[in-house]
UniProtKB/TrEMBL annotation:
Keyword Ligase carried by entry: no
Name by which UniProt lists this protein: Iron-binding zinc finger CDGSH type domain-containing protein
Annotated Iron-binding zinc finger CDGSH type domain residues: 21-64
Organism expressing this protein natively: Saccharothrix espanaensis (strain ATCC 51144 / DSM 44229 / JCM 9112 / NBRC 15066 / NRRL 15764)
Domain of life of the organism encoding this protein: Bacteria
Keywords: 2Fe-2S, Iron, Iron-sulfur, Metal-binding
A Pfam short name: zf-CDGSH
Amino acid sequence: MPTPRDKRRVTIVPGGPMLVEGPVELVLDDGTVVESDRFVVAVCACRRSKRFPFCDTSHRARRR
């Protein structure tokens, strides 16, 4: 199991989410702590996600 001092890789996706190698613990601006034990976590960068702080692909342009 990784220790808190182990490096994590964060990949910035242009126009999309930040991909963080997990497991992760996210602290939101109101102090709420959200955890995920997935091996890669998509963190919303645009705040449009209904599952914020996790990405649900709401940033994608809608096409008909």
